[in-house]
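[Q] Does anyone have a clean structure-token version of this?
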Amino acid sequence: MSTNPYELSTAVSDPVPASPRTQAGSPVWAIVRSVLGVVAGVVAGGIVAFLIEIPGMFLHPLPPGVEVADAAALKAHFARAPLAALIGVAIAWSVGPLVGSWVAALIAR
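[A] Here you go.
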């Protein structure tokens, strides 16, 4: 090998390196997939939890005149709520994050 900097090298190299956007294994693409995975997971988990809670809202609605901002009235309402309504909320708050984390892991890999 010559030490002359002006001599052409015999090694073959790629004259145009691929941009980070085109490389599937690049760190930039991994970060983008992670961020999109988290956002999609949060959205999916929230939607699933909301959909599971909808039947409970119809089966055990708030009494007339109770405002959501009134903590004492909500506390009294949930103290009288049937066990099925409370179990529905527990299921929604368990399945929603499970689905959300599954979606995030699926997208982020």
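[Q] Thanks! Anything notable?
[A] The helical segments are 27-59, 71-79, 83-108.
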